[in-house]
Amino acid sequence: MRVVILPTEKEASHFAADFIEKFITEKNNSILGLATGSSVLLTYAALIEKYNRGDISFKKVITFNLDEYIGLEPNHKQSYRYYMSQKLFGHIDINENNIHIPECLHGDFESTCRYYESKIKNYGGIDLQLLGVGSNGHIGFNEPTSSLKSRTRVKTLTKNTIINNARFFDESESQPSIAITMGIGTIMEAKNILLLGLGQHKSKAVADLVEGPLSSFCPGSVLQNHENAIVVLDQLAASSLKLYDYYIHSEKMNVEYMC
What we know:
The structure is a single chain. The protein is α/β, with parallel strands linked by helices. It has one domain: Rossmann fold. Helices cover 34% and strands 17% of the residues. It is built from eight helices and ten strands. The strands form two sheets. It has a seven-stranded parallel beta sheet with strand order 1-10-9-6-2-3-5, with helices on both faces. Strands 4-8-7 form a three-stranded antiparallel beta sheet.
């Protein structure tokens, strides 16, 4: 696991955007796994800037989102399809047919989950999976105690996740408590993983993910077993790491060696 610590949220997010730009440039028919939430907002904004400058094109990129709430229509302002349209897809040249989101509008959840898994497999798997991390260590909507070999499925959200996401919903709105999410096993099959951790409130989850024991109580800790995982942090998110200075030194040596 490569740990990159940068001073601010903006610098960490721009590092992620630069990494994605380089990845797409080298493999312009890339299969990207995408995340939602606050952690990736600045990264998406930076990617839009790169597109507007003509530095990058998404015409041949194929995307699979990590998750979607159950019970929200695609045009609902809190659905993740709407989020992706507003925060990224509506501002770039991606082909609508290349966008995949695990939504189920007909009630057959088991079939939807199987179909999503098969679509990913048919495309040859995900080349680069972008992740955030929840304050309880979840990745996607794989909450604590999720099986580390789980596949795309319906998952009940914890009280912690519901409370953290409540700020996005009006008091009059019904907030979903279940979602469809890629499983941890699905995520771990991505050839490359890029995880963003930003802010002081993520520092404990980040420490558990990077330095804690591999445990289903911190689902993100499974990334310790991935051979191509990069964890990108700002200083606040990294503040509880015991080997903070080592990661700074290691990345400095890594950059000098690559240059």
